[in-house]
Amino acid sequence: MAGLSYFEDAHDDLDDFGFDDYGGECDGIRITAFLDAGQDNLTPLGRLEKYAFSENVFNRQIVARGLLDVLREFSDNENDFLTVMETVSRMSEDCEPTVRAELMEQLPNIAMFLHESRPNFPVAFSRYLVPIVVRYLTDPNNQVRKTSQAALLVLLEQGVINKRDVESKVCPVLLELTTPNSDDDYKIEAVAIMCKLVSMLTRDTVEYLLLRRFCDLCSDSRLFQVRKVCASNFGDFCTIVGQDATEKLLIAKFFELCSDTVWGVRKACAECFMTVSNCASAEVRRTKLSPLFINLISDPSRWVRQAAFQSLGRFISTFASSAASGLPFKEQGALCEIAKCSSDLSRCNNLRELSDTRDSQKPPCMSGNCTDAASLSADSCHAPKDCVTTVLCNQGAVSANTVELPLKEAQKIDCSDISEDSYSTFNYWRPLLPDISLELEQMQREKEDVDEQSRKPEDPATSAIQKVLESLQHRMDDPDVLAQVQVLSAALKVSKLESEIEEEEEEENELLQKVDKGSLDMSVSPLQEGKEESIMEPIVQDEDHHASEQTSSSDSDLLIENAQEMAKDPDLLFDEEKTKVQDVIPQQLLDQYLSMTDPARAQTVDTEIAKHCAFSLPGVALTLGRQNWHCLKGTYETLATDVQWKVRRTLAFSIHELAVILGDQLTAADLVPIFNGFLKDLDEVRIGVLKHLYDFLKLLHADKRREYLFQLQEFMVTDNSRNWRFRYELAEQLILIVELYSHNDVYDYLRQIALTLCSDKVAQVRWISYKLVVEILRKFYLSAADELGLNFINELIVRFCHSPKWVGRQAFAFICQAVVEEDFMPMDQFSQNLLPSLLGLSADPVANVRVLVAKALRQTVLEKAYFKEANGPHYEAIEETVITLQSDRDRDVRYFATLEPSKNAMDTFALI
């Protein structure tokens, strides 16, 4: 019976408001109806007071919901406005939670209204509304607290609450709720609101009021929910306080959170790792954060490992620098500009270049386009025309694999180990000779003794290189090993050259000593004289050339040192993983990133781990730089052939960015084959290539780019014929691509595609294709190919102006207007070739055609100075046609025929 009495009372009150039987659904009617005159003879403010504190809860809810309209009613009178604000303040103390929640939901709207319309808003808001928001943060009802937290964030985002109120009223409450002795529920909510609040405050406020408390909350031993909230928002605090405070105070706390016993806390740390890393110095990032991240990747919890691998690429990107990547980029990682890459940008300069005299004797891969030994591959080395095939022999075993070296440096084949029992006809045509083997053996021993005494100790660098070369003979089928042999062979020759120079210098010194002592016999034979001249020759050599030889030798020190290191363990060096060594990021991070394509990772970590790898690959490539592309090449090829189309789609959408990073040479060698594969893939993958087709093609050389002219037609065919957005995207890209090809290529290939798209069943595709037609015309006339332009115009007249379908005739009017607006065609040619056909369409039976004719003539053609100044037959014909259209039977035609150009506010497409 009590419930029935409640609804009866509510019904009686609602009758007074005029709400009748609407019940609680009052959004569609005027909520402030209770202010209207009724039977109580009260003033509007009196009725507000009566119903705001009515015993009926529903009445109080209605008043709270309509407070914004109430303020609008009384905003003109200062006293009435303050009375309403006092009423709001008193209503905030209502005992019913639903009333308080309703009031708090309306508070952001009220605040914005006051902010826009009341000059004294800051005082009123600070005095009446801010205390309500702050008090509700500690409300016993959960719904009211949540509503107040949301309202507080909205007010801060809008910049309504001033800094003084935040520091003096909001922050003290949050600090009080986050003390060790505060209630658990209040504490968790206060930490969450404090962490969200920090990004809206100034750095000084955060450091002065919240930073110390945040550090204490990160170590809260009682509530893991508090630590999880802190971990989730750790990056925001680091971003606000900056590098110094991050490294002095926050990094230590971050280490604690990453080692937390609760996996949810560690997972939250992995998710914000990139943001934290961005706020640390390069040294801290490499020496402290990298090992910490490796621990998260190896975490016992699968969910932590999953989050860590998803953040791995982003964390690696924080190591990026313009010096290492060779490309300038903004703070957020976006490239500053995406321009056509020249071949000069694709050269890697980290390795000291050898002298010009040595460059002319080396293969292209060794004279300027490689960073170190590991960066060489068989794909990047091409033998010049003057190269011969040389066989490296080791202990009598001749390898079937070959290494290409220049002709001047071809090595001689050592055949000293050929068996003496080999067949020879010399053994059978005369009597056997006496056996003198013992005498020969004795002579050989004596010769070896003499040689042993005069032999100098072998250079350790040369020995190391030879040892590595010997160990590689059974691996010559590996392209990376083959490229490495080339580098080591060059280093070996430089080392031998140094030894020869030293021997010549010693002979010079000995000769000079003999000359000084007068012990040189001046009566020498002609043969001896020639020998002396050859000995003295290095003395009179050109000094610059000699200095160049010495400089070249010194530049090879790096290769020789690397060879000495390789000699220690050559078997391990050329393992597949060892060839991916670089020094830009910690090697462990790169190894873990490369392992994301391992099928085992999909089973133990995340089934979509390959997609995350593909998503972050351009950022990792930018970080490593093009000189370390060999580290990622295999991974990229693996991702490009992944069975999941989502992985391939991700790569397709970013291949143009990767092409900018790698440069034109690596793009042509490594990305073009993958790009060609994407062109034949599913539509979901092809659309990624299509959306950035222009961006990719402009990076290629002209001859390579021209090959794709034959494939553009393939984009017209899709898996689903209803996928009209695919054709729309093709038309948009072709508008840009026109500039990349000659006018003859455009006429032979792109023209036909454009005309086909102009006949598409979907209107959006047709209209964008008309713009493509205009762009092709522009290409012809800007390239001085007037004859091709005239042929194309005649084709347009036949296909569109004389089309039996009205959409074709309408398209012709649109094209004519666009040609005049773009102003690339001489007006005399326009008047001669296009204008007569356009004027002929003014009598078209279809109103939509006449609309575009009227718009083209009145808005564009008549505004051209050419027609105004000429005042000839063309002007008269246009003027007469416009006057005729101004009296057209169709209202829209009359409108566009009379509308002034500056007042053209109507969209033509809305009429079609």
From TrEMBL:
Coiled coil: 487-521
InterPro entries listed in its UniProt record: 2AA_helical, ARM-like, ARM-type_fold, HEAT_type_2, PP2A_Regulatory_Subunit_A
Top-level division of the source organism's lineage: Eukaryota
One MF term in the entry's GO annotations: protein phosphatase regulator activity
Phosphatase 2A Regulatory Subunit A helical domain segment(s): 89-317
Ranges: HEAT repeats: 289-327
PANTHER family tied to this protein: SERINE/THREONINE-PROTEIN PHOSPHATASE PP2A 65 KDA REGULATORY SUBUNIT, WW-BINDING DOMAIN-CONTAINING PROTEIN-RELATED
Protein name as it appears in the record: Serine/threonine-protein phosphatase 4 regulatory subunit 1-like
UniProt organism field: Erpetoichthys calabaricus
Recorded name of the encoding gene: ppp4r1l
